[in-house]
Every structure is written in C-alpha cells, then in structure tokens.
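name: query_chain
kind: protein
chains: 1
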Amino acid sequence: MAPPEKDRLPGDEDDKGLPTTDGEETMVSTDALTDHSAEDALDEEVAHAEERREAEDDAVPDVPKEAEPADAPAAAPAEPAEEEEDPFKDLDPDAVVRSRDPMTGVPARIADPGDVSLLWPLLVLVVPVAVITLGAILFRDAVYWDFVFKYYWGPIKADGLGMRTIVENGVEASAGFNLVNTASWAILMGALIFLMDRIVKKIEQPVDFPLVLATVPYMMAGSITRVGTDSGLFDPPLMFFLITPIIYVIVVAIATVWIVIGYLLRKHSEDVGPTRALLALGAFLLAVWAAYTIYSLQGDKVNVFANPLVLLVAMVVPYVYFWNYTKQSGHFSQVGVMAVFGVTYLLFAAAYLVLWHTGTQWGGGASAEPQYWIYVAMFVAPAIFVAAVFYVARHMTVGGRASAIVYLLPLNLLLVFAQMMDATMTSVGVDNLTPTTYSEKHVLPAFLIEAVDGSGIPILSEYPATTVMLTAKLIVSLLVVWAIDVYARSDMKDYPNLVGLAKLAIIMVGLAPGTRNAIRMALQV
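structure:
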C-alpha cells in the first residue's frame, strides 16, 4: 500500500510538477498520471499553443489579411472596369436611331445660363478685325494692298465678278481660297463655335438633333442666295457681301437672331400664354415682309425682285403649321420659331429658282440647258451612301461590334449625308458630267484632284474628282464620327453641347457648298 500524501497548500506543485488551482486542493496520484497517454499530452500542448497564437492575433491589427491574395479580386473586380471600357454594349440600336443626342448615348444638356460671359469670344472676333483695319488705315500699302486685298478682299471681289484673277494697284489676287484665308476662315469658325456655345447657354438651349435640323433650311437658303451672286442677281457692292464665307457668317447671324427671338417669345409665353406669343411671332414676320416690300419698291442692287405676295405665302405655310403644333402640344418651342423663319427663307429662295426655270432669268442667263436631274441627284446620291453606312453599321452592331452603333445616330448620319452631298456634286461638276465645266476652289482638294488627274492611272485619271472626293469625304466623315463618339468619348462626353456645335459646323461646311454646287449646275451658271 502506498503511504498517504500529505495535504498541499494552494499553488504547491505535485510530484510531477503540476501546479494546483487557486482556492482548491488538488490530489494527484502517480497512478492517475500514468493513465494519460503521450498522445493526450501532445494534444494539450497543441491546444495551448493555438490559444497563445489567437491571443497574439487579437493584440495585433489585422493588416496582413488585407494584402492576402484571396482578397485581391474582391478589392478590384474586373467586371466594372470592362463595362467602363465598352459604353455601347447596353445601348439599344432602335433607341439610338430615334435619338436626339448630339453624341451617341450622351444626351444634350440644358445648361444653366449662370454667369456666362460673351465677352472673350466677341473679343476673339472683334480685336483681330479692329487691328487689321487700323493697320490698313495707317499703313495702306503694306497692310491693305499686300495683305488684306491680296489674300482676303481681292479673292472675294474676283469671285463676285466671276473673274479668275483681279489686279488693282499693281497687286494681283486670285479668286477662291488660298492658304492664308483658308486658315483664317477656320479660326473664324472655331471662334464662332465657342461664341455659339455661350449663346445657347444663355438661352437655355440644348444642342440636339432638332436644333441642328432647324438650321438646315438656313444652310440651303444661304447657298441659293450665293448662287444668286453667281448668276448676276445682285449688283456691287451688295454682291461682295454675299460671297463665301461672308454669306455664311450672315446666315449664322440671322439664325442666331431668330432663336434668340424664340427664347424671348418662349419666356413671354410663360407669362401670357402661347397664343399671345404666337401673335407676337406673327408680328415679327409681318415686319420682315414689310421691310422687303419697301426695299423691293426701290429696286436697288437687286436685278429681279420676287413679288412680295410670294414672301407672304412662304411665311404663312410654316407659321400655320407651328401655330397648330403649339396649340396641340401646349408647348411653345424656341427652336420652332427659328425653324419657321428658316423654312420661310428657304421657300422664298426656292421661288427664285422657279422664276429662273420659267423664263425670268437675270444676268447673262444660262450658259447651257438647265440640268433638272441635278435636283434629284443632290439628294439621292448622298442618301445612297448614308443607307450603305446605316446597313453596315446595323449588321456590325448585331454581330458584336457594339461601337458601330455610333453610325446609327441621326446627327452622325446627317453629317455623312452633308459631306457626301458636297463630294458627289463636286464630282459631277469637275469631272465634266454637265455641259459647263467647273473647277475645285479649295486648296487641298484641288491639289489632290490635280495629282490624280496627272497620275495617268486608267479610270482614276479620267474621273479624278470622283476618285478623290468620294473616297476622301467618306473616309474622313466616318473617322470624324469615330474620333468624337468613340476614341475621345471620355474627354468629350462632359461637353455634349460643344460636340453638337462642332458637328453642326462640319455639316454646314458640307451641306452649304454641296447645295450651292448643285443649284449652280442645275441652272448652268
């Protein structure tokens, strides 16, 4: 028998070195210790080690866990980044076709007028003119004759008189465009775009497809007015102010005045109702009719005046339509006011074409039989290219090329149409497809056409304008749309109104000369 163990105080160790618990007596026999296996002792040591590690982990901030590879995908998911890179895949092609947006998937904005200053764009336009004018007065030979006349006024004057060159004071100037005035007109257009951007903000007008569409009658009517100069309808000095690009600056100014009038009438309609605003619009139109009637009675600087009743009818047609639209919708549209006068201007200008074709010709008359088929070709030919672009883009969009949807946007299709009208009409005129021979006046196209003409390549050299203009205009148009709506999308999407104005300018430089060329060839002047 084993001798009894003596009592132990709390905290004393047993024979095996095991401590006692506080406040209790622990009686451990050697036999009891021998009953534990080595595996149980090892398990206890492992458990104690895990407890110590957990205590250390609780005391240290859990920073390393954030850097563990398993957490990386959650911190930077790949899906959102992929959606950001392809903003077109969720767009509905049918919705894009009906869209008013100036940029694919980016709607126009009604900008807050706020503190929008018109000062600096006006300074950009006015200061250079003032400096050149002052220089021309102080240094007449060096500034006026050797610079202003040679590169600006001389070409305009020669163009108005129908001469290739003009010589005054020993200085020769060639009609059309040169590098100096081409660069100047480009800068002028840029300044006008920024000025118009400020104006549309002032009048709370988004630059969307309806606004651009409302400017189309102004472009076409301005081009018909320009043909009036070609045909001898106007006398000097009035004719010199109806030459490119002055005529288009005047047309832009007229369109701007009428949309500002529309803005004022819209504000007026909010106070007194649409009916009184419509009556006020009628008063503005009657004032224009009265001014024309008085001027026509004087018979100065214009060889043939259309009957004032023609202008009155041209006003009544769009005005009645706009009246009914406003009454039915209950909305007074400032763009609608602009469109009313634009359509009036176009109908009145077209009346002069009717006069010409019915025997009332002015100037020297036609040089050959009128080419009526041009009136059809000027719309059908560019429409074929637009239809082809639309068809290919639609199939590419369905086939997985989501970015091709930009070529379904109405504003972009109008841009392609305008540029292809210019291209097709230039091809018809320069490649001698009408009895009268015409030539290209712009610097770069003229250089390319001459290069292809002298290349000696079969077919291409026979139709150099067709080769150059159709190819270049189509490629450039598609690239411009892609560059704005796809390539520079992230930079441009915050400025949709400026994008709309830039596209409007591109449409104008295609549609305006294209219409002028077509009308001139149709009249054979």
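note: Residues 496-523 form the longest helix (28 residues).
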